[in-house]
Write a structure and sequence with these properties.
Order of helices and strands: EEEEEEEEEEEEEHEEEE
Strand content: 35-45%
Shape: globular
Largest sheet: 4 strands, antiparallel
Radius of gyration: 18 Å
Distance between the termini: 62 Å
Length: 203
């Protein structure tokens, strides 16, 4: 229930029910996603008009959403203590440990330039392949095979920060930044190449 009205060069967006907008993120298509307290994640076009929304009516625990990021195609990634939600082609999907995630709690997330999704879970960092996520969306029984980043890569076991004020970001050069309780983890996703497929066994 968002309405937009344009005055000169500014677009004012108001919510008639008096709910606060506590976060915005670009959809990379000219619009934005807005989180409205206790209501929904609302997708707005460049004129401020509502395109769609996802909330409790779709099965999303809106009050548990800790972080979110646009998927570059109009959809939205959302991290919660119960797993990773994806609003994909007007359908809400949930990925958790049953699908191969190392744990359910998603404290932060960011999408790299290739479309892969990086997630911070407690003190862990892992990458999810966009191709595998799309395959799992089309075939619910498909498993994900996350790339775990740990001590061998220099990651110390410090909890990642979560919440509206601690969203992970990607800079213009593609580098990702994940805030933690005592520091910030920064890395170039391109340095973590896709693992080679296992050799084919011939008997």
């Amino acid at each position: 229930l968002l309405v937009g009205g344009q005055t000169n060069l500014l677009i004012q967006i108001q919510h008639p029910m008096g709910k606060r907008v506590v976060g915005l993120t670009t959809d990379f298509l000219g619009g934005v996603w807005a989180r409205v307290v206790g209501t929904a994640m609302v997708h707005l076009d460049r004129q401020g008009k509502e395109v769609e929304r996802v909330g409790p009516i779709n099965g999303l625990p809106i009050n548990s959403v800790r972080c979110w990021a646009a998927d570059g195609e109009g959809g939205l990634w959302m991290g919660t203590p119960a797993g990773l939600y994806w609003w994909h082609k007007s359908k809400l999907l949930l990925f958790d440990t049953r699908h191969g995630l190392p744990e359910d709690v998603i404290a932060n997330l960011a999408q790299d330039e290739s479309g892969d999704l990086w997630c911070a879970a407690q003190a862990q960092l892992f990458r999810l392949s966009r191709k595998e996520l799309e395959a799992a969306a089309a075939h619910p029984g498909a498993l994900l095979h996350p790339l775990l980043v740990g001590v061998s890569a220099g990651l110390k076991p410090v909890p990642f920060a979560a919440g509206i004020a601690s969203l992970a970001v990607r800079d213009p050069h593609g580098r990702l930044y994940f805030p933690r309780i005592w520091d910030v983890v920064s890395f170039d996703p391109a340095q973590f190449k896709q693992p080679a497929p296992p050799p084919r066994v011939v008997i």
